[in-house]
Amino acid sequence: MAETSETRSIFVVGLRNAHAMENQALSIMKPQLSRIENYPEVANRLEQHYRETEGQIRRLEDVLEGLAEDHSTLKDMAMSFTGSMAAMGHSIAGDEIIKNSLANFAFENYEIAAYKSLLTLAEQGGFTASVSALKANLEEEIAMAKWLDDNLATVTMKFAGLSEAGVSAKI
């Protein structure tokens, strides 16, 4: 499949959606980072991924700029708002760390799917200049999803142990 105006349009919309998605990710992680007390390993990995996400946003902006396009400020604001609301909803849960871990894992897999879709369009549609940036973003999302998956049992058991000891374990 070669680049057509329709393929380009679909690709640009996907890039704008990914940019908004990454802004949403920041708005989800920021409140979590400010609240984590008993899970330093989670805080450290979230902080690392927060910085990675900022880099992912810059890569997406570079790709859009290379196409003489810009991100959608309206989409960015809307997605950031929904991310903040989701994070706030978990903060009232007695098992906030568990809810965050589950939601973060689901969101990472959503991001992985989004980047796989964008890579398909980039590779098949002739947008080869964007492939390395999209692959870099995908690799970071896969690594974060794997970390969350590998650490879910540990976080769950730590939560249970702190709860049994009468320590505030929610976050």
UniProtKB/TrEMBL annotation:
<protein>
    <submittedName>
        <fullName>Ferritin-like metal-binding protein YciE</fullName>
    </submittedName>
</protein>
<dbReference type="InterPro" id="IPR012347">
    <property type="entry name" value="Ferritin-like"/>
</dbReference>
<keyword id="KW-0175">Coiled coil</keyword>
<dbReference type="Pfam" id="PF05974">
    <property type="entry name" value="DUF892"/>
</dbReference>
<dbReference type="InterPro" id="IPR010287">
    <property type="entry name" value="DUF892_YciF-like"/>
</dbReference>
<dbReference type="InterPro" id="IPR009078">
    <property type="entry name" value="Ferritin-like_SF"/>
</dbReference>
<dbReference type="InterPro" id="IPR047114">
    <property type="entry name" value="YciF"/>
</dbReference>
<feature type="coiled-coil region">
    <location>
        <begin position="43"/>
        <end position="77"/>
    </location>
</feature>
